[in-house]
Write a structure and sequence with these properties.
The protein is built from four helices and nine strands, in the order βββαβββββααβα. By secondary structure, it is α+β, with helices and mostly antiparallel strands.
């Protein structure tokens, strides 16, 4: 399982890349492997204010539907529309082209509540 050390993680299997006040969010390699063939996902609208751990969307596979949670509080500023046309990108490149959305942070202290790569690996073992 691929768990890049420069990212932060949630217990709900989202990853976060922090760049200034912008957090790029996606689902982890572990999550996409467990979900298998992702066929569809639904994300919030740009401009929506979200709270940390609030349900913000769903991922559908041929076998299940799983919720997506916001790892941090803030405003949705971008959605990866390219993945709309190719949801399988979440399986093939979860940490690159398969990112889901970007959040402009409103409470940077919340980043401290996220898991390190090592802590996330322990959680998934």
């Amino acid at each position: 399982m691929n768990t890049p050390s420069e990212l932060k993680y949630t217990k709900e299997h989202e990853w976060v890349r922090i760049e200034g006040k912008i957090a790029t969010v996606g689902v982890t390699d572990y999550a996409q492997a467990e979900l298998t063939d992702i066929t569809f996902f639904e994300l919030p609208e740009i401009g929506r204010e979200v709270k940390q751990l609030e349900e913000i969307g769903v991922i559908e596979t041929s076998k299940a539907v799983s919720e997506i949670y916001s790892p941090l509080s803030g405003k949705i500023v971008e959605i990866n529309s390219a993945s709309d046309d190719a949801p399988e990108t979440l399986n093939s490149d979860p940490y690159g082209e398969g990112w889901l959305l970007k959040i402009e942070l409103t409470d940077e202290v919340e980043v401290e509540k996220l898991l390190s790569a090592e802590a996330y690996q322990e959680l998934t073992e």
